[in-house]
Amino acid sequence: MGSPVSPIVVNLFMEQFEQLALTSYAGTSPSHWYRYVDDTWVKLRKDQLAPFYDHINNVNEHIKFTQEELKDNKLAFLDCLVTVQSDGSLETSVYRKDTHTDQYLLFESHHPLVHKLGVIRTLFHRANTIPSSEDAKEQEREHLQKALNFCGYRNWTFHKALAQTKSTDETAPARKTQDDGEVTRGRNITIPYISGLSEKLRRIFRDKGVPVSFKPKNTLRQALVHPKDKQPKDKQSNIVYAIQCQDSGCEELYIGETKQTLAKRMYQHRRASTGCGDSAVYTHLDITKHSFDNKDVKILDRESRCLMGYY
């Protein structure tokens, strides 16, 4: 879970699984079998429902399906609600769970405008593609209009997001032209979003051919969710640190880096070396008889991937 290769591996496995399951079934196989990753929508004869369900749950001991039958001639599949009409045809509409609250990104939240316009475009794209009838599409668009209005979206945002010609300031990719006339794009960078400032930086980078994306600077998750206790400063390793001499009138400042814990490195700074030369911190303390306190040592940065090669 979480690996970019997971969907590929899952699909490869499920393709092999479904081929084996369908070809080895002794009864009448389903007339329709639609699958996305591990979600399936299947049409088969009623008398085959129980035996086929038992069959696919015995193909592989690690793969167990659950089933949901039609209710009122309706069955949900992904974002679609499929309705079987009286003539046997299928009609689709947008599916929402009973617990859905129509809560989307609030317009007054501290996010770039392009993110908010993206919410409108995404939802209306779904409204225009999933429903199979024009009436259903219109009902979905009206529902979204009311829901997004409740979330603070003004009418002008719908016109801006859904206009055929998008504002180049919001949507055009940053590009630069080489001397031979070929259009190229620079490497994309991501910067924290600060309203009013980040937009100006994006325009500057765009003029240099560098596309810019935004990310939230502070999130509620960062403020509230801390699954691990904060590591004490003395036990942190792979760090860049600063030692300021504590004696009044002395402005000596030492900046170093270490793969060891801060406590162990400070212990070494206070002792004469038995091998190579003494550290600059020890030399200063030995000559001046000054001192410093571990609690006043500042950690400037930390390398979480443990790539620091010396200390």
Describe the model.
It is a single chain. Helices cover 33% and strands 18% of the residues. With 311 residues, the chain is α+β, with helices and mostly antiparallel strands. The chain has 4 domains: 6-67, no CATH class; 89-172, no CATH class; 176-222, no CATH class; 233-302. Helix 3 (113-129) packs antiparallel against helix 4 and helix 3 (113-129) packs across helix 5 (155-162). It is elongated and about 95 Å long. Mean pLDDT is 85; it is low at 165-171 and 306-311.
List keywords for this structure.
elongated, three-stranded antiparallel beta sheet, alpha+beta, 311 residues, 10 helices, disordered C terminus
Alpha carbon gyration radius:
31 Å
Instruction: Give the count of structural domains.
Output: 4
Number of strands: 12
Unreliable residue runs: 165-171, 306-311
Oligomer: single chain
SSE order and pairing:
Blueprint: H1 6-23, E1 32-36, E2 39-43, H2 49-56, E3 74-77, E4 80-84, E5 90-94, H3 113-129, H4 134-150, H5 155-162, H6 168-171, E6 176-177, E7 183-184, E8 189-193, H7 198-207, E9 212-216, H8 220-224, E10 239-244, E11 253-258, H9 262-269, H10 280-288, E12 298-302
Parallel strand pairs: 8-9
Antiparallel strand pairs: 1-2, 3-4, 4-5, 6-7, 10-11, 10-12
Helix pairs in contact: 3-4, 3-5
